[in-house]
Amino acid sequence: MAGISVDDLFGFAGLIDDEERSIVETVRGFGAKRLRPHVAEWFEDGALPVRDLALELGELGLFGMHLDGYGCAGASATAYGLACLEAEAVDSGLRSFVSVQGSLSMYAIHAFGSDEQKDRWLPAMARGEAIGCFGLTEPDFGSNPAGMRTNARRDGDDWILNGAKMWITNGPVADVAVVWAQTDPDAGGRGIRGFVVPTDTPGFTANEIKHKMSLRASVTGELVLEDVRLPADAVLPGVQGMRGPLSCLNEARFGIVFGAVGAARDCLETALRYADDREVFGRSLGGYQLTQAKLADMALEVGKAFLLAMHLGRMKDAGAIRPEQISLGKLNNVREAIAVARECRTILGANGITLEYPVIRHANNLESVLTYEGTSEMHQLMIGKALTGYDAFR
Question: What is the total count of domains within the chain?
């Protein structure tokens, strides 16, 4: 192609330092060599070689890379975001694997767990030898997790958990689940609490959800807890109430802010190559005004989304970011990414609906990304509350 890249158009090279550039190149290279040759097949088959990939991703240092100690890399939030961008440029399911492991499961244990919980699980999870999942969403409680029905009651020194969690990434293959449950304040529960649940505990089952049309290169399940007996030290001691799970969700949402840019960028780069190669009426498709208008508009949105992600990353590294600011990034970047994917599909024409090209796969995946970790409507309300001071969730 004779043209320049979106990165060059915006002059992005000066926005990242040498360490961040090295991480980008490492993840991008791993994606090109190990993931891209197989991801369309994984998507079509609805299967992912989770155990093998977990060890390889652990060796790369991607799991919990923004956490300190316990075998974690201790990288910056921005570097972690850039890694998520490169992972999602391959497939949203792969970024989701990294996010759930590091930003939900590991982060919950790292931020709120006991020393014993951290020592037992975090090093193995960082290496990819143990896989985690995060049990918050329920069949009837997604946007309103505080209404969860999963409960934990005391029985002597033990806890007994009952309930169900839905749409849990990694659930069917996890070794450990961080499960949030209602507890009885009169029994020392103090409201909603988190529990570290080894998945081989009697009464714990995980059923894989099949027939998905989105995030097919990702393992999703339902967790069922039937009189799951846990010792007293299974509870996360460092948090109570909704602050615990919501802070974990903010970590995962931050990864999505960057990840969505990766999916959009991959679609745009695919459309640019296709428009250059495809001849229509005897000339390159990329030489027509309507095509160039589409490409220009999409490049603008991808570039703005990246700038927003980088700005939020620097704010997070400075310890100055607020939840509603992460909502800004999640709302804008996912909304624009799915619009870019759909527009790129029009440039590819009929070829855009095949898995020979990544565009329809990204578009389908982004349908899930649009609604998980907070729907667009919920993020609009978070931003609206910040702007007006009024809580309009009810």
Answer: 3
Same domain, 293 and 174: no
| Active-site residue, from 222, 356, 373, 377 | 373
What would the pLDDT profile of 115-148 be if each residue is shown by its tens digit?
999 999 999 999 999 999 999 999 999 888 888 9
Domain membership of residue 393 (yes or no) is no
Helix (H), strand (E), coil (C) string for 290-358: HHHHHHHHHHHHHHHHHHHHHHHHHHHHCCCCCHHHHHHHHHHHHHHHHHHHHHHHHHHHHHHHCCCCC
Domain containing 174 equals 133-234
Q: What is the pLDDT of residues 50-83, one digit of tens each?
A: 999 999 999 999 999 999 999 999 999 999 999 9
Q: Identify whether residues 111 and 146 lie together within a single domain.
A: no
Q: Beta strands 176-183 and 151-155: pairing type? A: parallel
Report how far residue 81's alpha carbon sits from residue 263's, in angstroms, rounded to the nearest whole number.
13
59 is catalytic: no
Q: How many CA atoms lie within 13 A of 204 on its CB side?
A: 24
